[in-house]
Model the fold of this input.
Amino acid sequence: MIRSRLCDLLGIKYPVIQGAMAWVSTAELVAAVSEAGGIGVIGAGLMPADLMREQIRKAKSLTSKPFGVNLMLLSEHIDQLVEVVLDEGVPLVTTGAGNPGIYLERFKAKGIKVFPVVPSVALAKRLERQGVDGLIAEGMESGGHIGESTTMALVPQIVDAVEIPVVAAGGIGDGRGIAAALALGADGVQMGTRFIVANECIVHEDYKTAVLKAGDRDTVVTGRPTGHPVRILKNRLAKELLRMEAEGATPEEFERVGTGKLRAAAVDGDVDFGSVMAGQIAGLVNKRQSAAEIMEEIMQDAETTLRNIYGRVH
Ligand code: TUI
Done:
């Protein structure tokens, strides 16, 4: 069985973090992933603090296993969200879209483990010095807001630069991806896209169908000129955003077209003009399963892959 120091640190069976997804990884999916031996993570996205408290309480009612909360640092509610997380006490906080340095002391004082998502070696080193518990090295294959480097290039460079556990993210959707991440020196993986289609995930059915239907070239990166590139499935919204980019639209114009579009896709099922965030690995996600079936399958396949590789080199 594949175990790593990540399992001991977080008190989990398998070294798999469910990537946080706003409007998608709600308490239902989070609890199912944690029950299945990984660790589920609630995606706060832009939600207000009272909704986050509700989600944390719901997750607590559905599982006694550890779970996490992701804080999207660009949120206007970030200070209140931090207070709710401190007040409720969750085992794990992951962060995205910025540097969580100013909040670290308070999380540490409560015994909350902090794993920021980092897109670069420089930020990884800085955060290790500031005392984070681990890092999520996320490549640009991921869905949603991304950095510039690929997972293949980023993970080994961060692994070499720090001592703390490193979790690989971006482009990982099955056991082969997990084996590859371990080969790069990662202590575990974070997977988002594969869990979108989990039976327990409450996202709109049409969003799931769009991910299931997607092929290898069906995601695009929009919003590069705004400084916040976002990978989404290629649909009418994506084409409109790319057209605006080509015509030199202002950040304000982007904001007007983009605002509320993730909710439109995830909650209302508007997969044509909503923002259907998904990673490049969507092409590999072809079947609906329970979170437990996903976990058992990927961990079995990871072991088989590693054993087969070992067999080939002897
Ligand atoms: O955060 C994500 N993925 C996301 S967030 C999101 S919602 C959103 N809403 C409005 C604008 C943008 C996004 C959808 N998907 N992944 C983690 C991630 N973090 N990817 C990249 C980063 C990142 C980027 C820069 C982390 C740190 C960072 O640091 C800059 C600095 O301050 O040094």
